[in-house]
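Notebook entry, structure prediction.
Reason for the run: the old model in the group folder had no record of what sequence produced it. Starting over properly, with the input documented here first.
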Amino acid sequence: MAATDFFTVEVWTPRGLVTYYVLFVMRLETRSVHIAGVTTAPNGAFMQQVARNLIDVDDGFLLNSRYLMDRVTKYTDAFRGHLDREGVKPVRRPARAPNCNAFAELFVRSIKDECLARMILFGEASLRRALREYDSHYHIERNHQGVGNRLLKPVDRICSTNDPIRCRERLGGLLNFYYRQAA
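New structure, fully documented this time:
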């Protein structure tokens, strides 16, 4: 089962402050997240392309998912129909029930509190870079209580407790990961 939702980010551009919509999908079992798209106008054409990308036969994020929970009005009938034809049944959550999508809501809170709310973003490129860096941090370096306080994609390291502790910084030190350097 997977869940999907949008969150918004304010970005400074030459035209002034612009609201970007970020669409993400989360596998509930593993808590892994995929940023499915970033746009200023989540219209039908954008949603159709996202649906095609999510169920792509080679590397679609929803390949092994049977259900996708959603609630947003931006999910068009064509979007839901495209997923349904490919075997991913969209399940509508009840209105005003954030607990039905608690893991996705927690991800939004995490990415905003740990990263986006602490940055002033200038242009779409800086937003995409921040999302990319947070995605790597979230999957490789950040512990998750919901899965036994483990890393989602641990990197194998052979080290001892005597090895020196190192720090990997992302986004200028906004996101930090401490580890022991392998021998």
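Summary: The chain has a mean pLDDT of 86.
The old model has been moved to the deprecated folder.
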